[in-house]
Amino acid sequence: MVNVGDTAPDFTVPKAGGEAYNDLEPFTLSDVVSDGPTVLSFYPAAFTSGCTDQMCALRDTMHLFDDLDAQVYGLSVDLPFAQNIWIQQENLNFPMLSDWDHEVIHEYDAVLDDMYGMVEVAERATFVVDTDGVVTYAWVREGDENPDFDELTETVREAVEDAV
After folding, report:
1. Which residue among the candidates 2, 33, 51, 57 is catalytic per the annotation?
2. Is 56 designated active site?
3. Top-level CATH class of 6-162?
4. Predicted structure pTM score
């Protein structure tokens, strides 16, 4: 697992911006970390209730991250076209990253290998990366428990403040 103090594994994946179903561009972590603290919020699958709760909690507290000049990205193995529709449907105010080839979830050791006993997806996890590319916060769900999203958002906000 990627731990606090580790250099964040770099990656390049498609980024869904949400303006249209084909609003896509490449995203490379190392290209953006110097712009401010970066929050990577891994989630199992778009359009599911727990993931919608997770992303909407971030949406509803985005002003806290904006005040810290932090960048927030959702990350899943969903195709970016589906992520774009989900962004629109839920009025999400941050982009999604598509790890459709499952490389990033393995690099960060945030893998749920049997969602519904059938498919490998991202485990619910959150990492904060500072402007030097160092992980300052790492949380990966264990078992089937979902986090208290209010508490998780507050904890991430504190980690981002510490990274600033």
Report:
1. 51
2. no
3. alpha beta
4. 0.89
